[in-house]
Amino acid sequence: MMYPIMVKIDFSQVVKSAKTPKPVLLTLFINWAIKPFSMFAIAYFFLGYLFKDFLPGTEVLANGEEVDLWRSHIAGAILLGIAPCTAMVLMWSYLAKGNDGLTLVMVAINSLIMLFLYAPLGGLLLNVNAMPVPWQTMLLSVSVYVALPLIAGYLSRKWIIEYKGIVWFNETFLHWLTPISITALLLTLVLLFSFKGEVIMGNPLTILWIAIPFFIQTVFIFSIGYFVFARCLKLSYHDAAPAAMIGASNHFEVAIATAVVLFGLASGAALATVVGVLIEVPLMLMLVSVCKRTCHLFDECHLGYPQYERITPAQDG
Predict the structure, then answer these.
(1) What is the pLDDT of residue 311?
(2) I need a labelling partner for 120 at 20 to 30 A (CA). Which of 29, 31, 96, 186 fits?
(3) How far is CA 198 from the centre of its chain?
(4) Which residues of 170-190 are buried (b: 16+ CB within 10 A; e: fewer)?
(5) Are 237 and 300 within 8 A, CB to CB?
(6) DSSP character for 227?
(7) Cβ-based burial of 311 (10 A; exposed 0-12, middle 13-18, buried ≥19)
(8) For domain 3-280, which CATH number applies: 1.20.1530.20, 3.40.190.10, 2.40.110.10, 3.40.50.1980?
(9) What CA–CA distance (Å, rounded) separates 141 from 235?
(10) For residues 111-147, b (16+ Cβ closer than 10 Å) or e, as one string?
(11) Which helix (H) or strand (E) holds 60?
(12) CA 178, CA 88: separation in Å to the nearest integer?
């Protein structure tokens, strides 16, 4: 699942970040200073307090340790919260008519930072959640699911473009590769739900209880990024939209893979990451619509939709 995502990233775009520092610094601040901790706090409040009695029971993890089921679900939320989106955000930015070049820059930088911060942040928050953290397994997971695909994607992209050209890479290679990534993700989702089928049937509202904090977290991160920080920094709409959405969405492929390796395919953590996948697409489409409808709040808004454009005094007169 990881390689098809990493090979699409153009890391040469990183050098362009100096030209647009404000939106890049904004997305880095949201993704690494706010989002991991807000996800943990919101998930703990709902799953570890408000909905705790609706998530009864324990489970045995892959290492043989028994933990409360609600803690396992929070662990899945943590793994989602420390993985900023590096794939689907390209689609969200495109749909919102965001700055595609800036989006590529932010995706590349976040992918590099995730290589160094994913394990330490994950270990810290999982420890606070009283979940076992096998550090060797955690580092192995980051190496296999982040570092290896990132290096392989960078080298193969460079080699293919050098020998075949960018047109062949975009129109032929990626066209062939994308279905493989989608198929792998769908197969993983089917396997995860099959392993948790008994739990879901016994407590059918489990998905809802897990989805509620994810919904709140996504809307919260998007709102502070888009309506608060982006406006304070006086960003254009086309920079503000992708800067906010990259924080609101998650790199669920890495989160799912890490949850499976750390806690097992049948774990509550793995189930929680899957719930994140299920709600992300419709929720992000809703936020794309919110962006377009509020484009007029920003100084620069060029959507081509008259009803969403800023009305200037000259136009009004």
Answers:
(1) 46
(2) 186
(3) 28
(4) eeebbeeeeeebeeebeebbe
(5) yes
(6) I
(7) exposed
(8) 1.20.1530.20
(9) 36
(10) beebeebbbebbbbbbeebebbbbeebbeebbeebbb
(11) strand 58-60
(12) 12
197-224 per-position pLDDT tens digit: 666 666 678 889 999 999 999 999 999 9
> In the predicted model, what is the mean pLDDT of the chain?
82
Provide, rounded to the nearest whole percent, the portion of the chain with pLDDT above 70.
83
What are residue 60's DSSP bridge partners? 66
Q: What is residue 304's three-state secondary structure?
A: coil
User: For 64, which DSSP code?
Assistant: S
Q: Could you give the CA distance from residue 204 to residue 210 in angstroms, rounded to a whole number?
A: 11
Q: Where are the alpha helices (DSSP H) in the chain?
A: 3-6, 21-29, 35-45, 69-81, 88-95, 100-128, 135-142, 148-164, 166-168, 174-195, 197-202, 206-223, 230-232, 237-248, 252-263, 268-293, 313-316
CA–CA distance from 256 to each of 125, 277, 300 (Å)? 17, 9, 38
Phi and psi based region of residue 97 (left: phi greater than 0; alpha: psi -120 to 50; beta: remaining): left
Alpha carbons 282 and 51: distance in angstroms, whole number: 24
Residue with tokens 């200073």: 33
pTM: 0.82
> How many angstroms from the chain centroid is the CA of residue 79?
10
Ordered by start, the domain boundaries in the chain are 3-280
Q: What is the pLDDT of residues 36-61, one digit of tens each?
A: 999 999 999 999 999 999 988 888 88
> Of residues 179 and 172, which shows the higher confidence score?
172
